[in-house]
Every structure is written in structure tokens, then in C-alpha cells.
Amino acid sequence: MIPIFVLFLIYSTAFCARVPVCDSTNSNNSFIYCEGPILEAVNYHQLYNDSKTFVDMPMKQNPQDVLNAFNLKFQNSTAPEKINKTDLQTFIDQYFSAAGTELIQCVPDDWKEKPEKLATIKDPQLREWAYKLNGIWKQLCRKIDPSIEQHNSRYSLLYVPHHFIIPGGRFREFYYWDAYWIVKGLIASEMYNTTRSMIRNLATMVNTHGFVPNGGRVYYLQRSQPPFLSAMVYELYEATNDKDFIAELLPTLKKELDFWDQNRMINVTMDNKTYKLYQYKTASNVPRPESYRVDTENSAKFGNDTARQQQFYQDIASAAESGWDFSTRWFSDHLTISTIETTNVIPVDLNGLVCWNMDILEYLYEQVGDMDNSETFRSRRADFRNSVHNVFYNKTDGTFYDYNVRSKSHNANFYTSTAVPLFTNCYNTMNTGIVQKTFDYMDRMGAFTYPSGIPTSMIQNSEEQWDFPNGWSPNNHMIIEGLRKSANPEMQDQGFEIASKWVLGNFKVFYETGHMWEKYNVIGSYPQPGSGGEYDVQDGFGWTNGAILDLLLTYNDRLFVPDNFINTTSTSTTSTTTSSSVQTTTSSTTKTVASFSVLLFTLLVWIFV
Ligand SMILES: *[C@@H]1O[C@H](CO)[C@@H](O)[C@H](O)[C@H]1NC(C)=O
Ligand SMILES: *[C@@H]1O[C@H](CO)[C@@H](O)[C@H](O)[C@H]1NC(C)=O
Ligand SMILES: *[C@@H]1O[C@H](CO)[C@@H](O)[C@H](O)[C@H]1NC(C)=O
Ligand SMILES: *[C@@H]1O[C@H](CO)[C@@H](O)[C@H](O)[C@H]1NC(C)=O
Ligand SMILES: *[C@@H]1O[C@H](CO)[C@@H](O)[C@H](O)[C@H]1NC(C)=O
Ligand SMILES: *[C@@H]1O[C@H](CO)[C@@H](O)[C@H](O)[C@H]1NC(C)=O
Ligand SMILES: *[C@@H]1O[C@H](CO)[C@@H](O)[C@H](O)[C@H]1NC(C)=O
Ligand SMILES: *[C@@H]1O[C@H](CO)[C@@H](O)[C@H](O)[C@H]1NC(C)=O
Ligand SMILES: *[C@@H]1O[C@H](CO)[C@@H](O)[C@H](O)[C@H]1NC(C)=O
Ligand SMILES: *[C@@H]1O[C@H](CO)[C@@H](O)[C@H](O)[C@H]1NC(C)=O
């Protein structure tokens, strides 16, 4: 007879504890939306092409009644292949409503047709476009019926009290890091109340769950996203100078940073010194319900090796926490998803962002007169900035790279994340060489040579959406802002050039397709909506619109649409008015003068350096 403890040993080496994406500690319906026989059967029979559809469907009865009815109808079957697909569809139609029907479209109370700030955009075509993007806020505004707060167990939705702006498409609830660029756009549209509402919703999450989940559904309760909440509060404060609001939010911002300190910190030893850094690492090690089918298909490669499968699921969900789902950044062979090892990667962008959080907290505490806390974060940031420099900065190549704790080396491939420490000022500003070198590195990598913006990486054929040839709003916006905020005129000019390419590329696609997209293919003379990854490209789109509105304002007197830039015979969304074509002539003259002075200036700098 085998002693019990030996059995236990065999068991515990074969299986790590299974950690679902939600459970009875944080949701009353985890056996419907996060795991269980219904989720498995629906995905096995592929009732919906996108796994996310089912987990966004509200129930018509309480979760336990729905599960009981399922067990009764299908004789407690845990084997989905024994279930009849037609009967399953009938059951789902009987007990569930259509995806997303618990969200109500709304018009934000502070929305207006022609915000004054947007009137300062000089180019008439760009100004008209800005008004159209401003109009899209009404299509993307959602609120949750307050009665749902009482009966929340019938929904996968996480209840939030105020209205908010969604990204769009399959992303029908609130999302975390998207909200930063949405907020930038709302501020451009002078929608300060809606900005406050969005921030307060995210603060509700910190106060009930201890952190901001990836998005507003129970199946996101084991992972966050790049921490931009403090940055949203900072941007709103810069726009409104509202000290009461920062005083209200500061305890929440501090609490959110505690989450990263307590759950996402790792000790990294390099050259005999140990640094405390941050990584994306969720505890969950099961398929993501919203991508259940894709995840289980991808893990089939590991056969019956349960431990390996669990590791795969954890690395997949951790990459989803990074916002870059998926990218060769997380793959050990830098090409195929089955080699994913997110939990071995210490990401330069996350650490650059945490550094910014400390900087913002120092500043906001100082603004409300709390000098003790301000000083705490000043000194934490000073130390942390050195850690970021020592671990991520590669002296040979003169840039910042992710660090891999398994291989104990940098990932020396180009990714747009290299520029995040510039965007967040996470370097010693006396050391201007660092900025110049990072800029030179991006230049050497050919990052500035594409017609419609900067691609996420130079790695082709991965078919992942966060790689070549896709360019994304957050990355392009952060690079532009990092260069613009530098003290170097050459870099500031390159920032403007990228802004011009990105804005005009988005503009062209808008006139061709009538939509704003979540990502763009930046190569070729004609940009396209991006592609690749696990779902079709989505339109809407919150962060795209936000980044464009912000850039249109930042460069309101410098951005112009060149003559004959858009094919007016194929415009699907608007007709060019006579007044705007007259104006375009003046605009392009201004632009010629502007680029000539840039050229002259570059020449002078070159002669004198
Ligand atoms: C679960 O339901 C109970 C009773 O309806 C409620 O008191 C509790 O707050 C709910 N828990 C969650 C996490 O929603
Ligand atoms: C599901 O995908 C298949 C194959 O890609 C496609 O033919 C079908 O139209 C899709 N169905 C829906 C409802 O989108
Ligand atoms: C299903 O399981 C429940 C509880 O375990 C049991 O009471 C019931 O008889 C089972 N039903 C069928 C059809 O097997
Ligand atoms: C599934 O059930 C339907 C009736 O609900 C029946 O017409 C069909 O033949 C069944 N399919 C299979 C493969 O058993
Ligand atoms: C913004 O909110 C404040 C306070 O709730 C309210 O008094 C004001 O009317 C709102 N402004 C707009 C433009 O809706
Ligand atoms: C890092 O090292 C310190 C000791 O220097 C230890 O207290 C802490 O628990 C370690 N953190 C992690 C995440 O391992
Ligand atoms: C690290 O420490 C070991 C032993 O303490 C020493 O031999 C080695 O030279 C040190 N390495 C560096 C890079 O300082
Ligand atoms: C897993 O499958 C392999 C062959 O595919 C087999 O040799 C092995 O015994 C299986 N392991 C377990 C634990 O079932
Ligand atoms: C820095 O980059 C060079 C060239 O890409 C590489 O050989 C070197 O190993 C990197 N340094 C570290 C610490 O990884
Ligand atoms: C402009 O669009 C029309 C209609 O789609 C097309 O026939 C024509 O070739 C396009 N012209 C250019 C220069 O792209």
C-alpha cells in the first residue's frame, strides 16, 4: 500500500494549485463565467466565433438555477463532446440574453458639439475631423443600470457607478490602460466631468478589489494592466487645477501602487547587486474565458503535461496584463507563441511607468501640501530611477531593453517600449546623452522610415498584433511625447514628423473606411487597419481617437493636410467643402515654410556640433 504522503507528493509535483480567473471570493457566478461545464461546452461546440461573446451574456435567472438547469438537461455531463450542439444553443438562448445588453448607451452631460479648444486647430479639414471624433464620444459612452448593483450575480459585468467611454467593438466595457488616452481626448474635448467619472470608476475598483482590473468583467479579476491611473489624475489636474479632486484620489493612488509593490515585485540580481523591479505576473493558470478556445487550442501542444499547460496559461494571461497581447517580446524564440515566458521578462515599459507613478505622487502630494509623503516618493523615485538605469540600459547599444531573468540578458530586439523611460522622464535629466543615444538607436533601427508611424517591432512573420507592421496609438503617442518633451530640437522635430505621419495616416484611413481603428499597418504608401493576433481588428476606437485629438491640439498650428492627400472621389464619410480646399492651399504653403525652417535649423545644428 502506498502511504498517503507519497500520493500527495506525486499529486503535488504533477499539478500546481489551479488558480481560476475568478472564484467565490470575488464573484457569485465564477462557475458560469470563469470556469465550469457550460463555459467548456459553449467553446467546445464553438457556438460563437469569439469566445468573449458568451462570457459577456447576462443570465435570465440566478447562476445556481442556470447551472442546475444545465445539469438536469444534459445529465450532469462534464464531457462536452456528449452534448448535442443544437440542444446546447437552445439552452443558451433560453437562459442567456445577448452580449452586452446590460450596458446602456448615453450622452455625456458635458458633451458639446464644438468644444472651443478644438476650434484652435488651424487646418480646416483636420478641425472638421476633430469635431467628428468628438461626436464619436456619444457612440462610445456607456452606463450601467443601477438595478444591476443589486442583482450583480446575473452579470459578468463589474458594477461601476458612473458613465464611461469604452474602446469599442468587442471591448464593450471599461478598460484600464485604454482609459489614459481616452482621458487625454476627453480633456481635449473639454469633458472634465466625464474624465472625473472615469477616474472615479477605476478608483472604485481599487477600493473594492485592491487594484484596477484589466477591464470591467469578473474574468479580469486576476490581472491588471499598465498602471496609468495616477497619470490620468495628473493630466486632469494639469487641465483643471482641481486640488480637491487630487486630495480625494491620493489615498487610492497610493493604494494602487501598494498592489504593484506587494504582488508584482521581483528581486533582480545583476553584477552582485539586487534591484527591486516590477513585472507582469498574474496568479491565474487556466485558459482566459474571453479567449478560451484560442488558449486551449494553443496549449494542446503540451499534451497531458498539466504543469506545462498551467505555466503556459499563466504566461499568456500575464502578457495580457501587459496590454501587449501578444508580442514576440514575451516569446523566448522571439517568434512563436508556444515559447511564451512572460514571467521571466522584466519589462522596461512597466518599470518606466512605475517610476512615473512615483514622480506623479511626489508632485501631487506636494500640491496638496503633504510634504512628508511627497518626500517619501521623491526619494523612492530617485533610487528606483537608478535601478531602471542599471538593469535596463544597455551601454553597448545605447538604449533601454527588457531584461530576462532566465537568460540573464537583454532582449536586444527593437520594440517601441524602448522609449517609455523617455516619455516618463525616468532617467537622470542631467544625463542628456541617454536621450540622444536612445534617439540615435531608434533612428539606426529604421523606426523613423515608415510612412504612417512607428511599427511596434521589426519582427516580421510572427503574426502577432504587437509586432511589425502594426503601429498602435499608445506607442506612437508616447514616443512623440517623449521626443517633444526632450530639450533637443532635432528630437523635437522628429517628434513632430512622427505626429504628422501618424495623424495623417489615421486621417486617410478614416476617409477611406469611415472608421477609426484600434491599430494600423504603418508600412506602404497607403495605411490600413492593422491585422494579426487572436481576434479581428476592432473599430471605435477609444484610445485612437483620444491620441489623435491630443496631437491635433498639441500641434494645432503646425499640422496640415497636404494637397491631394485624400482621394476625394472615394470619400465615404464627408465631402470636402470649397472653403477647406481654399484653406488647404494656404496650409501647405505654411507647411513648406515650416519644413524649410526645420531643414535650415538641422543644418545649423549640424554645422555647429
Ligand atoms: C454574493 O451574493 C451575496 C448575497 O446575494 C452578496 O451579499 C455578496 O455581496 C455577493 N458577493 C459578490 C462578490 O458579489
Ligand atoms: C465565424 O467564422 C467563420 C469562419 O471564419 C465565418 O465563415 C462565419 O461567418 C463566422 N460567423 C460569424 C457569426 O461571425
Ligand atoms: C446530477 O447530480 C445531482 C447532484 O450531484 C444529482 O442529485 C442528480 O440526480 C444528477 N442528475 C442526473 C440526471 O444524473
Ligand atoms: C440534436 O438534437 C436535435 C433535436 O434537438 C436533433 O434533431 C438532432 O438530430 C440531434 N443531433 C445529433 C447529432 O444527435
Ligand atoms: C459637471 O459636474 C458638476 C458637479 O456635478 C455640475 O455642477 C456641472 O453642471 C457639470 N458640468 C457639465 C458641463 O455637465
Ligand atoms: C526581495 O528580497 C527581500 C530581502 O532583501 C525580501 O524581503 C523580499 O521578500 C524579496 N521579494 C521577493 C518578491 O522575492
Ligand atoms: C561578485 O562577487 C563575487 C564574490 O563575492 C566576486 O568574485 C565577483 O568578482 C563579483 N562580481 C562583480 C561583477 O562584481
Ligand atoms: C502523457 O503522454 C505520454 C505520451 O503521449 C505518455 O508517455 C505519458 O505516460 C503520459 N503521462 C501521463 C501522466 O499520463
Ligand atoms: C547589450 O547589447 C549587446 C548587443 O546587442 C549584447 O551583446 C549584450 O549582451 C547586452 N548587454 C546585456 C547586459 O544584456
Ligand atoms: C480614388 O478612388 C476611386 C474610387 O474608389 C478609384 O477608382 C481611384 O482609382 C482612386 N484614385 C486614386 C489616385 O487612388
Describe the structure.
The protein has a 3-stranded antiparallel beta sheet with strand order 1-2-3. A 3-stranded antiparallel beta sheet has the order 6-9-10. The chain contains 22 helices and 13 strands. It is mainly alpha-helical and 609 residues long. Among the domains are: 36-101, no CATH class; 106-250, no CATH class; 415-530 and 539-575, no CATH class. Helix 7 runs antiparallel to helix 21 (542-554), helix 15 (348-367) runs antiparallel to helix 16 (371-392) and helix 19 packs antiparallel against helix 20 (489-513). Residues 1-13 and 571-609 have low confidence and may be disordered. It binds 2-acetamido-2-deoxy-beta-D-glucopyranose (10 copies). The site of one 2-acetamido-2-deoxy-beta-D-glucopyranose has 6 residues, from strand 10.
The number of strands is: 13
Question: Based on the structure, what is the oligomeric state of the protein chains?
Answer: single chain
Morphology: globular
Identify low-pLDDT runs: 1-13, 571-609
Query: Pairing-aware structural class of the strands and helices?
Result: mainly alpha
